[in-house]
Specification:
Strand content: under 5%
Structural class: mainly alpha
Radius of gyration: 24 Å
């Protein structure tokens, strides 16, 4: 991913912010954007967590709809991964 800032004023502000904080330009821009989003009531960390949870939920729903093959039961618990007699993976 890349972000090419073509606005000289914005680029100068990023350089100056990086210089006075000792951080990278990327870090100061990230910090500024997180603060801006927070001012608008959005927590970027929470939003990212929600996106990931939604993706996991979607995968689980899709998996739930898959057919059972050869009459085998679905794997629902860790123990289902192993043969009950030998203890070896199935």
């Amino acid at each position: 991913m890349s972000l090419n800032i073509k606005n000289e004023r914005v680029h100068a502000l990023a350089r100056e912010a990086a210089r006075i904080t000792g951080k990278s330009q990327t870090s100061v821009i990230e910090e500024a954007l997180v603060k801006l989003l927070a001012e608008y009531g959005l927590d970027p960390v929470e939003a990212d967590r929600k996106r990931r949870m939604d993706a996991v939920t979607q995968i689980a729903l899709e998996w739930q709809d898959l057919p059972v093959l050869d009459g085998e039961d679905r794997i629902r618990e860790v123990e289902d991964l192993y043969d009950t007699e030998t203890g070896l993976p199935v």
